[in-house]
């Protein structure tokens, strides 16, 4: 027979999956769980800590333990699919809000990244992506003017790669993506409706054309409690 904390954990998972404990609802207190299962607080605490580590619950100091929202999965595979396609395939409703669109001169760092001349015109696009009306991603994207001159705000409110393809005949051939953990600064936390220093995922992307030119560079912050990643590998 498995340890008592494991049995309690599995029982709570069953109730979460059966929607007896709904997403974002508060779980019973540790004392209430102790009474329900007839165990010590240490046993209950171990079960809740493991549930938190596995992403089933969120523990908030001074408030209690809450059922985590179902995470929005992002597939990091060999096939480039848009945010809209990935979210829609999970039965969710996507929405993109454009915060700003401006043309800036490339500084030394940007010109190196995008392989452009110094002071070349770069379109800087800041957007927030929502799923079911809740913010999931804060994104800053840079597109050289020479690649797609005059991108409009309306064109930025849908998939940027689709805009490049449909309006500029620019097709992304491949991307290089680097994923790491970081924390939200006050500005990003405000837009993702979270708190400063909350853990989040940071994804940096370079998008290449068939001839090797760089069409876009983006920096995306994912809400840590609402995002997950699936890595798909193919072996010959």
TrEMBL record:
CDD domains: WHTH_GntR
Pfam families: GntR (PF00392), UTRA (PF07702)
A Gene Ontology molecular function term of the record: DNA-binding transcription factor activity
Taxonomic superkingdom: Bacteria
Any one GO BP annotation for this protein: negative regulation of DNA-templated transcription
InterPro entries noted in UniProt: Bact_HTH_transcr_reg, Chorismate_lyase_/UTRA_dom_sf, Tscrpt_reg_HTH_GntR, UTRA, WH-like_DNA-bd_sf, WH_DNA-bd_sf
Keywords assigned by UniProt, alphabetized: DNA-binding, Transcription, Transcription regulation
HTH gntR-type domain location: 2-70
Family annotation (PANTHER family): MANNOSYL-D-GLYCERATE TRANSPORT/METABOLISM SYSTEM REPRESSOR MNGR-RELATED (PTHR44846), MANNOSYL-D-GLYCERATE TRANSPORT_METABOLISM SYSTEM REPRESSOR MNGR-RELATED (PTHR44846:SF1)
Protein name from the UniProt record: HTH-type, GntR family transcriptional regulator
Organism: Shouchella lehensis G1
């Amino acid at each position: 027979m498995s340890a008592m904390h494991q049995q309690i954990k599995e029982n709570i998972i069953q109730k979460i999956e059966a929607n007896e404990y709904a997403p974002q609802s508060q779980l019973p207190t540790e004392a209430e769980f102790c009474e329900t299962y007839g165990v010590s607080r240490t046993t209950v605490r171990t079960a809740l800590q493991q549930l938190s580590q596995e992403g089933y619950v969120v523990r908030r100091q001074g408030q209690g333990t809450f059922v985590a929202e179902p995470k929005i999965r992002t597939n990091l595979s060999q096939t480039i699919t848009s945010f809209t396609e990935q979210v829609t395939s999970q039965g969710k409703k996507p929405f993109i809000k454009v915060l700003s669109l401006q043309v800036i001169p490339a500084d030394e760092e940007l010109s190196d990244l995008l392989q452009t001349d110094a002071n070349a015109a770069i379109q800087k696009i800041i957007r927030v992506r929502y799923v079911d009306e809740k913010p999931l991603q804060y994104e800053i994207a840079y597109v050289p003017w020479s690649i797609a001159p005059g991108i409009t705000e309306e064109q930025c409110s849908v998939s940027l790669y689709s805009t490049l393809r449909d309006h500029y005949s620019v097709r992304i051939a491949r991307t290089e993506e680097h994923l790491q953990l970081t924390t939200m600064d006050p500005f990003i936390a405000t837009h993702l409706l979270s708190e400063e220093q909350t853990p989040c995922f940071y994804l940096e992307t370079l998008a290449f054309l068939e001839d090797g030119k760089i069409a876009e560079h983006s920096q995306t912050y994912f809400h840590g409690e609402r995002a997950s990643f699936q890595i798909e590998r193919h072996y010959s």
